[in-house]
Amino acid sequence: MPGPMTEPLFDAIAFDANGLVPAIAQQHDTGEVLMLAWMNREAVAETLATGRVCYYSRARGRLWRKGETSGQGQRLVELRLDCDGDALLLLVDQSGVACHTGRRDCFFRAARDDAWHEIAEVRVPPETLYPAG
User: Averaged over 24-36, what is the pLDDT?
Assistant: First the structure.
């Protein structure tokens, strides 16, 4: 399990003007690209300290612990930084579906014949993931 992050590790991450860095989640054992989200310093630190992936939700304006409402969480296997320091790759163990639409991953539309085509079925109805309450 990853440990707490030290200052030199944070210093290597090129957070943008809003204090965010894009984070790509990839299933560690299959290579399946699951989703793209954003992380701030606090989300990176929490993820490394707990092993449970935490993102920063731009829409909510707060930390978002993956699976906190849907139960579809991500366990961190390894955190990687790209060559420019401006993107993170999270190798994760995804529990259930990663996409809020109920699909395994967020990249379920493919450009084919000048149109977007859905290439993956909904596995869990969104209303089951996020019941009104």
Answer: 98
